[in-house]
Write a structure and sequence with these properties.
single chain, alpha+beta, 4-stranded mixed beta sheet
Length: 105
């Protein structure tokens, strides 16, 4: 499956538009990660534990979107957008939503 954030893929002609596809995931950040991330914020540096969770959430949402596109008979997704939000009590949950247009190239 070819993926692109642009409306077209260079070198390919879109033969058919299948429709909009989405993928969503919500992941909770656990208590220990919050503590270590808070310490990291105080002393500086990157929070590897949060970065790992963020990548996992994005990968899950992207895979879900690709599965939906394949079910529609698409072999590519163009115009992909990835949104990140914190939700829930005390913003303790991370939501990643992906969307794009499933196409046949």
């Amino acid at each position: 499956m070819l993926l692109s954030t642009t409306p077209q893929i260079e070198g390919y002609q879109i033969r058919e538009y299948k429709g909009i596809v989405t993928g969503e995931t919500i992941i909770g950040a656990n208590f220990l990660k919050d503590i270590f991330a808070g310490i990291r914020d105080i002393v500086g540096g990157r929070s590897a534990s949060y970065e790992k969770v963020l990548r996992q959430a994005k990968d899950i949402a992207m895979n879900e979107m690709m599965e939906r596109a394949q079910e529609m008979g698409a072999n590519a997704i163009v115009g992909i957008d990835i949104d990140y939000e914190t939700i829930g009590k005390d913003n303790s949950m991370l939501m990643v939503a992906t969307s794009g247009t499933a196409v046949v190239i």
